Amino acid sequence: MDGYDEGTVYYSYQNQEDEAQAASGSAAESGRGNILSAVEVRRRFKAFVLGFANERYRYTYRDRLRAAVNAGTLSLSVELAHLTHFDAPLAATIREGPDRAIVQAERAATEAAAVLQNTAIEDVIATDGQRETPAQPQDRPSGTAADQDDNAQSASLNDISRRGVQVILRSNETGREIRALGSSDVSKLVAVSGIVIASSKVRCKGTAVVLRCRNCNDKITVGVNPGLGGFAVPRTCRRVLGENEVDCPLDPYVVLADDSKFMDNQTLKLQELPECVPTGEMPRSISLSCDRYLTDLVSPGVRVDVIGIYSVSGAAAPGVGRGNKRMSSGSSLSISARAPYLRVLGLKIREGAGYSGSRTAVSFGFEEEEAMLRISRTPGLCDIISRSVAPEIFGHKDIKKAIAAQLFGGALDKTLPDGMRLRGDINVLLLGDPSTAKSQMLKYAERVAPISVYTSGKGSSAAGLTASVIKDKAHGEFHLEGGAMVLADGGLVCIDEFDKMRLQDRVAIHEAMEQQTISIAKAGITAVLNARSAVLAAANPAFGRYDDTRSSAENIEFQSTILSRFDLIFIVRDVRDDARDKMIAEHVLSLHQRGSEKTNGSRSGIFGKGSSGKGNAGRDGAELDVNDGAAYGVIGEGNEARLDINSLKRYIAYARTRASPRLSVEGAELLRTNYVSIREQMRAKQLGDDEESGNTVPITVRQLEAIVRISEALAKMTLDSTVTERHVTEAIRLFKVATLDSANAGAIQSAEGALRPDVRLDVQRVEAALKRRLAIGSMASERRLIDHFLDEKYSEFAIRNAILVMMRRGDLEYRRQRKYIYRSQ
Predict the structure, then answer these.
(1) CA dist., res. 423 & res. 420, Å (int)
(2) What are the residues facing 339 on neighbouring strands?
(3) What is the DSSP letter of 740?
(4) How many secondary structure helices (H) and strands (E) does the chain include?
(5) CATH number of the domain at 757-823, out of 1.10.10.10, 3.20.20.140, 1.20.1740.10, 3.40.50.150?
(6) C-alpha span between 273 and 780 (Å, rounded)
(7) Residues 6+ apart with CB under 8 A from 580
(8) Which strand (E) or helix (H) includes residue 802?
(9) What is the per-residue DSSP string for 178-201?
(10) What pLDDT was estimated at residue 288?
């Protein structure tokens, strides 16, 4: 720890001053405002550790430090609020000059730990912060049990002195955005919030490196500053030459790793929260340097509040470096540029108030909680919330209710005794014609969800959605970097143009949609990341829009493996109806008329009154006081009643935090009865209908679990603790108008499980013949294949079903405007 108190991290220091020099140098700084000297910081911090008492007159940090020493964890967590209350000048010094102040604080904590280890608690006097002289032990024969205790105590004191105590700072202050940090914050204590997107391996970083000259065997010790800065090995020997002695050659020093001191160090990459990034801007990121007990605490996808020193490190200029003979005229200016980073002094994972997985720190004041409870008691709240979802979009009542249920989610803490976790998030797929407002509903859901990530299928890859392994250029190591589903852990992932994704990219999210984890095994890294997020996807039919001249199964080109992971699947049709078209035209024209009026505050648009839908304030509006209960409530009356986006967003966060409904006995019985009845109806239809009954599929256990999740979400909307028959009835109705109708239309037709035995046998025969006719890696015209098998006396229904079955399994793919069939496996 001796090399920690010298200077900042702008450059490497080759000389170490003794304590007296450091004290005299720090005394000059004491004239700047409230900056205390190094000796004063150490004395006051020791007094704080030994003397701070809470409202119950218990010595908080004295007990905390003793427990840490007994556990072998030499770290002490300090609340900045306690420090400010106890000694305001000391807290101000740590905020304004944390580089040197934190070193003295750690030395003071180390001395306090030694005092507590060597002195009984009742003998410690902490009023003046002076170190007590321990009572001398009485004479006793050598080798007694007491003598052995003294030896053990001496060893413990030596260990404390050698390792030192790490001071970890804690604060409840609201973290700043990364883009708000500037040059005026350099070398000061700052608090930022963000999401960890990458983490390196834990490495050993030297704190005191011992160097030996290869020529004369002279040894020197070089102190290394913490953070991302390193140290420069002297190019010449520092030994004082005697008479008739010659200089040692250049670069004589080698590192003696066995004699050097090291500590754990890890580098993280922190990115701005997705909901805090302004529209049209790239998210900012910053590197974090964690050491000792702050390493290996988080993984990519975790949202954290960080407090640390805003520091800078040297960044090599482009084109300037070893082996480059040419140096441009602007290189000296480039070398002076510094890359900012954060030396972490405290790290807190956001827990306890979350959106699916307890990852969002959401706090509610008393008045706000009263407002949330008042909203929950509103009659017909489920319908009001449904109308609040994309209110400017005409119709689609059931789709809006499904999205509302998805935003609230089912019960999120279902963990079985064997450790298995049941999914509580609801996945929804909107499949239909263009110009049916699918993308607009995705955009609104992305804005109203407390945690959300919006992406397009065409511009998304498997690594971009899940996780990727990145090679660190500086050290040559590989580290994980989370994708969209990891960044949205505990939130909502909106995927537009889902049908434009490549097949292998869609397959990559199978595990994330059902198990809600992402398993990585690349470049020697084996890890499992959390992806506890709901998926809202929008897609178009196979031919761009729904083709009525083709069968329903031909309009859908998704595999059953991905379709079965969606709890609700809506087929959105653009039906030609004069009366409906007239109503839609009037609605759209009224929107344009109101939008051109540019009224401010007199109307409630898609984002409510003066809100952009992000955070608690509009980007060009006033800040919303989240503790003001009057700011929330239902606006409008009757069929026009709804919640504005700020009220809805906060109510969703409140409901997901406070409500966790459980299925009642009556609700479970009703669900069981309907489940058995629907399966019986499907079975009767399968046996009684003709060949076209192949478009139906029986309800499976996966769909049963989907109805349970929808029922829980409906109960959560009103903060009910029990799922009643009313919730189950509405969930079954919603399921029937969505997924069940899609199943009848052929959207979720499973492999061959719904065909009659004779038809299934014909399909299997055509499939075997098709495999013999079309080799792996070859391609043929679909029309020619169908004509060939028609000549072989197979029915066209069996031929087309065999092709569809192989398409959904991934054996076949369409090529060249869907006119040719390619066999991939």
Answers:
(1) 10
(2) 313
(3) I
(4) 27, 26
(5) 1.10.10.10
(6) 49
(7) 395
(8) helix 796-809
(9) GGG--GGGTTSEEEEEEEEEEE--
(10) 92
Rounded to an integer, the average pLDDT of 309-336 is 51
Name which of 53, 60, 18, 59 is nearest 39 in CA terms: 18
Q: Name residues whose C-beta falls within 8 Å of residue 394's C-beta, 6 or more positions apart in sequence.
A: 437, 583, 584, 587, 588
CA nearest neighbour of 411 among 232, 664, 645, 647: 664
CB atoms within 10 A of CB 692: 11
Greatest Cα pair distance, the chain, in angstroms, is 112
Rounded to a whole number of angstroms, the CA Rg of the chain reads: 34
- Percent of the chain at pLDDT above 70? 75
Q: Where in the chain is the domain with CATH 3.40.50.300?
A: 366-595
How far apart CA 52 and CA 57 sit, in angstroms, is 9
The mean per-residue pLDDT over the stretch 122-132 comes to: 39
Report the chain's terminal Cα–Cα distance, integer Å: 62
Q: What is the 3-state secondary structure (H, E, C) of 305-335?
A: EEEEEEEEEECCCCCCCCCCCCCCCCHHHHH
- Report the CATH fold assignment for 2-132+144-170: mini-chromosome maintenance (MCM) complex, chain A, domain 1 (3.30.1640)
State both tokens at 547: 């083709």
480 CB contacts (<8 Å, ≥6 apart)?
198, 199, 299, 300, 467, 468, 469, 470, 520, 525, 527, 529
Residue 122 confidence (pLDDT) above 70: no
Q: Which residues make Cβ contacts (< 8 Å) with residue 379, sequence separation at least 6? A: none
- Write the pLDDT tens digit of every residue in 165-202: 889 999 888 888 888 898 888 889 999 999 888 888 88
Question: Which burial class, exposed, middle or buried, applies to 810 when counting CB atoms under 10 A from its CB (0-12, 13-18, 19+)?
Answer: middle
Q: Provide the CA 470 distance to its chain's centre, in angstroms.
A: 18
Which has the minimum average pLDDT: 88-92, 117-121, 198-202? Answer: 117-121
Which residues, at least 6 apart from 694, have a Cβ–Cβ distance to it below 8 Å? 749, 754, 755, 756, 759, 797, 801
Q: Please give the structure tokens belonging to residue 589.
A: 């024209």
Residue type, 556: I
Rounded to the nearest 5 degrees, what angle is found at the Cα of 79, between the Cα atoms of 78 and 85?
115
Q: Are 167 and 105 in contact (CB under 8 A)?
A: yes
Q: In this structure, how many other beta carbons lie within 10 angstroms of the beta carbon of residue 421?
A: 14
Work out the angle at residue 808's Cα, subtended by the Cα atoms of residues 803 and 810, and round it to the nearest 5 degrees: 95
* Residues forming CATH 2.40.50.140 domain(s) in the chain: 178-240+247-316+335-349
User: Domain 366-595 falls in which CATH fold?
Assistant: Rossmann fold (3.40.50)
- Return phi, psi of residue 791, to 5°: -65, -25
Give 40-52 as a DSSP string. Answer: HHHHHHHHHHHH-
Buried b (16+ CB within 10 A) or exposed e, 135-161: eeeeeeeeeeeeeeeeeeeeebeeebe
What are the start and end residues of each CATH 1.10.10.10 domain in the chain? 757-823
List every span in the chain annotated with CATH 3.30.1640.10. 2-132+144-170
Class (C level, CATH) for 178-240+247-316+335-349: mainly beta
The first and second tokens of residue 41, run together, are: 């910081």
CA–CA dist 664, 677 (Å, integer):
20
Contact partners, residue 620, CB within 8 Å, separation at least 6: 612
303, 306, 312, 305: which is closest to 227 by C-alpha? 312
Cβ proximity of 220 and 259 under 8 Å? no
Cβ atoms of 509 and 465 closer than 8 Å: yes
Q: What is the pLDDT of residues 666-698, one digit of tens each?
A: 989 998 888 888 777 767 766 655 444 444 344
Helix, coil or strand: residue 544: coil
Side chain identity at 495, as an amino acid letter? I
